[in-house]
Amino acid sequence: MSEARGVLLPAYVLVDESASMGPYVDDLSAGLVSLCEELRAAPMLAAKLRLAVLGFSDDVRVHLAVADMRVETNLPRVTVRGSTNYGAAFSDLAGRIPTDVRFLRDEGYKVHRPVVFFLSDGQPTDFGWKRALARLTDRQRMPAAPNIIACGMGSAERQTIAEVASRPEFGFIAQPGADLGKAISEFFHALTASLIASSQALNSENPQLVVTRPEGFSIVLDEVTP
Amino acid sequence: MSPRPGPRAAAPGSAAAPVVVAAPFAPTAPTAPAAMDDTAPWPRITIDTPGAEFEPRPPGQFAYDFPDTECDGWSTPDFTVRSASIRGAGHRFYRKPRQDSARVAVHEASGAIVFAVADGVSGATDSHLGAVEACRAAMERMLHLLSQGAPMEFDSVAHHAAERLRQLAAWRLGTGPQSSAVAASWYATTLVAGVVQPDASGPRVELCRIGDSGAWLLDRATGSYHALFGTKTGSDTDLVSNAVVPLPHVPESVEALVEHLTASEVLLVGTDGFGDPLGDGDGQVGALFARHLAVAPTPLRLAHVLDFSRETFDDDRTLVAVWPGSSAGAP
């Protein structure tokens, strides 16, 4: 491999902007601001990340496109609208991620497998989402297929989140009846901790994605059903 | 990276043909140097966009045996050796000890240079100790084999190093023999070990590796690098992936090879903290080392060069370099 300018981890934050998230817009915004500020305060780690923030509902809106958080001054702002179209979100990523990876490689960077942090408070309202997810995670068709960390709360069901997560230990569900504002805050705390720990491990002899469980969430497959 | 012995790409800025030759030693009366400010700062060499600058923080209180930087250098009638190992910016910031290690010795009866380079795995809690012990055990075994006049059996070198890590775990627990899994959780480490011996057809290099540390031949005439082991990824793959199985695991067949050094080549053995930014050696990092290794630098100078700053490359770096011939590496 030719000399690289650096080694990067592209990270995508994919948050649910469906109407049911309306009461929690401020919590989402506060979480994103906190994430951006913490990355700015750790420039050595932020140098190894490129962060994208996407909101999904009927469609996908880009609030931040693979940005270097050391120099990015815009704070992502979320808006709520429409339905919970998982398929639109996964289809968007399936187009976006290979393009971003190619762009970063063309810039001279080595790129680690991208990671998606997915947060939803509801069940998908579309029927094609499983096919879109399968396309997104098929490493044969898409070598840059991401790891997906999925967090569900509110009406999101355990089984659905388990299917979205790319590994069993990457799926988390908030405790039933949890304060959703607090759950969002914990999601962002865990996301920040995961990004920082993962970027520390990037250049090691055995780089690995380090995933922190959000406080108040459990791993989706923890529950034994009768 | 071009195959050997085919044509090799010259690094940008490298000399096209001539090999740098040190002037023969001729004592002369010292002349008064031009006025120099010997208190001037000694800034790190930066490449492209440098990483963040900060005063290193200490590792944990029990890591006093693992200094931030180590370097060494000497010559025999047949070879000139330099080595350096530096703590990466990540470990300097997050208060971790240097987890790389290097050891070099001369086997006095044969004049062979014996070396070992190890890179402790971050996920293992005491991999800095594992790296040192793996180097020591490999050195002991190779020196023993040379003294016996036995062939360099790298399987036995690797198993000896692995056994040392298991013994260390047993000693720590105060119990009987420990499994590789227990030893791996504390002491997992990569290892490149080998010898360079004088030989009629040019210095003979034999080496082996466990894990993803590497070895290269730097051609001083062209500034090009030839990787002796495979690299982490091909240039046509989208993503970097470098999962490795380190010691104390020993594969069924240890990866080993034999090469001969030409007069213009330098043997380089290093951890991925050096190998990753080097890549094929056809960029700025390759050019930097081609310039500085044309003739053996002082050990301190090698450590300084190895401590170059380039953003995102914050791993520990270790490099052992062996030049054929003495006279500070002149071919």
Topology:
The complex is a heterodimer of chains A (226) and B (331).
Chain A (H helix, E strand, L loop, with lengths): L5 E11 L8 H16 L2 H4 L2 E8 L3 E8 L18 H21 L2 E3 L3 E6 L8 H9 L9 E6 L5 H7 L6 E4 L5 H22 L15 E3 L7
Chain B lengths: L68 E7 L3 E8 L2 H5 L6 E8 L4 E9 L6 H22 L5 H20 L6 H8 L1 E9 L6 E7 L3 E6 L4 E4 L27 E6 L4 E6 L1 H7 L5 H9 L6 H8 L10 E8 L7
Antiparallel strand pairs in B: 1-2, 2-11, 3-4, 4-5, 5-6, 6-9, 7-8, 7-10, 10-11
Helix pairs in contact in B: 2-3, 3-4
Helix content of chain B: 10-25%
Count, helices of chain B:
7
What is the first-to-last residue Cα distance of chain B?
Answer: 24 Å
Widest sheet: strand ordering of chain B: 1-2-11-10-7-8
Provide the CATH topology of chain A: Rossmann fold
- Kindly provide the name of the CATH class of chain A: Alpha Beta
The poorly predicted ranges of chain B are 5-26
Structure class of chain A? alpha/beta
Number of helices of chain A: 6
Overall pLDDT level of chain B? 86
Radius of gyration of chain B: 20 Å
Give the overall silhouette of chain B.
Answer: globular
In the CATH scheme, the class of the domain at 69-119 and 192-232 and 241-329 in chain B would be Alpha Beta
Number of strands of chain A: 8
- CATH homologous superfamily caption of chain A: von Willebrand factor, type A domain
What is the β-strand count of chain B?
11
Shape field of chain A: globular
CATH superfamily of the domain at 69-119 and 192-232 and 241-329 in chain B: PPM-type phosphatase domain
Distance between the termini of chain A: 52 Å
